[in-house]
């Protein structure tokens, strides 16, 4: 990886991260970016709370509390909470497209109707571990019912196939918006060219269009949003007509990890951890049964429209490593995949982790989730490697992630070979997870 300068000492990196989070703080939450993402995003806030616990514990709890204040009556945690102080058009697609005000059970504040991977219970647990004490315990006790409601929503409303796994209804819900994993089901989504002519994209005004999803991608994204919005975000009848229905390995790994985290939270606050442990085991069993592909030795999304696994070898397939009860043979297979030429380096895995198979013809090292390296995914995979007995690989991955920021700053994502910073600069979760990586040194 090319060296491009930047603060090389750990103290300088810590100051950079703290300054980035302070600059992105917005009265009760952190914006991912002052330019590209000026509102509150769901899984961004979860990752950001983990980092804030290192430096401003009270802000970590305010971050999560403000997000869950926008929880819908059915338990869903929306993927965007809009700041009413910003002008109309400050972000696209904005509140006027989502129309949450017309949806049953939506909060008073404008939100999207989609969700994102449920990493929030894990974030709450880690925030408490980083800053234990009475205030943190009280915050856990307050958040616990909302975290349980989030899981209940997913279990009751999004288990479309009845197989114990959660279905995402839009690529944005997976967090990996334009991953090659979605190419096949997205190709089946009709998209009129007129759709994009009616709107003006916000992202390409702040980032190179060559690094972002294409206009065709966006037309299809909007078509899926319209289909979900027009049915009132009810989740009823999804199997009959919704254009995008996929069981995602990352989303379901986060869903299972949330139950493990909730079991620990329940024990801390004096509640019964047993039901959470039972549900966690069932989710892991369903994930292995439904999404593991023995032919490739990795996990792959299942398209419920065709009931087939989707074949692209993306970083989604590595994320079930975050499940502590993933069977050893499946964890070992994922280590083989992670250290293959597709994703890593066989000995130390100290090369930036790409979001897609480096050897695939559709690998694009500059375009969003089609190749670049992201700190949040590397952070999750690193935790999984450490949990499954590979601290050596976890240490190599940690070194590569710190090196990315040392070279390029707190960018949204990075070129997986040169380390060049891509997307938005001064990005919230990059700064937050850098703080967590710095605190969790090699000795630990």
């Amino acid at each position: 990886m090319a060296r491009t300068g930047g603060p090389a000492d750990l103290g300088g990196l810590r100051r950079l991260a703290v300054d980035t989070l302070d600059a992105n703080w917005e009265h009760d939450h952190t914006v991912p970016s002052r330019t590209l993402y000026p509102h509150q995003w769901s899984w961004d806030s979860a990752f950001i709370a983990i980092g804030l616990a290192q430096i401003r514990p009270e802000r970590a709890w305010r971050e999560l509390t403000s997000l869950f204040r926008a929880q819908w009556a059915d338990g869903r945690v929306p993927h965007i909470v809009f700041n009413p102080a910003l002008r109309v058009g400050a972000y696209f697609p904005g509140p006027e497209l989502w129309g949450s005000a017309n949806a049953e059970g939506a909060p008073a504040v404008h939100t999207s109707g989609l969700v994102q991977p449920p990493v929030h219970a894990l974030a709450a647990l880690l925030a408490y571990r980083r800053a234990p004490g009475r205030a943190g315990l009280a915050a856990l006790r307050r958040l616990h019912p909302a975290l349980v409601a989030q899981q209940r929503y997913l279990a009751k409303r999004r288990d479309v196939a009845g197989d114990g796994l959660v279905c995402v209804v839009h690529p944005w819900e997976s967090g990996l918006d334009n991953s090659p994993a979605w190419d096949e089901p997205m190709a089946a989504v009709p998209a009129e060219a007129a759709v994009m002519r009616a709107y003006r994209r916000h992202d390409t005004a702040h980032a190179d269009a060559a690094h972002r999803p294409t206009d065709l991608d966006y037309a299809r994204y909007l078509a899926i949003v319209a289909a979900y919005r027009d049915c009132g975000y009810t989740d009823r009848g999804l199997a009959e007509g919704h254009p995008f229905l996929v069981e995602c390995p990352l989303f379901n790994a986060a869903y299972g990890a949330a139950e493990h985290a909730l079991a620990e939270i329940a024990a801390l606050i004096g509640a019964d951890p047993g039901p959470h442990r039972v549900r966690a085991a069932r989710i892991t069993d369903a994930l292995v049964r439904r999404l593991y592909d023995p032919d490739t030795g990795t996990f792959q999304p299942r398209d419920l429209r065709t009931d087939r696994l989707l074949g692209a070898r993306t970083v989604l397939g590595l994320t079930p490593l975050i499940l502590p009860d993933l069977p050893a043979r499946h964890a070992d297979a994922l280590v083989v995949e992670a250290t293959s030429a597709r994703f890593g380096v066989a000995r130390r895995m100290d090369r930036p982790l790409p979001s897609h198979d480096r050897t695939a013809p559709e690998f694009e090292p500059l375009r969003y989730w089609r190749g670049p390296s992201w700190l949040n995914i590397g952070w999750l995979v690193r935790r999984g490697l450490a949990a499954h007995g590979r601290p050596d690989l976890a240490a190599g991955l940690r070194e590569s992630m710190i090196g990315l920021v040392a070279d390029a700053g707190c960018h949204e994502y990075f070129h997986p070979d040169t380390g060049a910073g891509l997307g938005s600069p001064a990005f919230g979760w990059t700064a937050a997870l850098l703080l967590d990586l710095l605190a969790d040194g090699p000795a630990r």
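The longest helix spans residues 134-157. Residues 353 and 378 are 6 Å apart (CA to CA).
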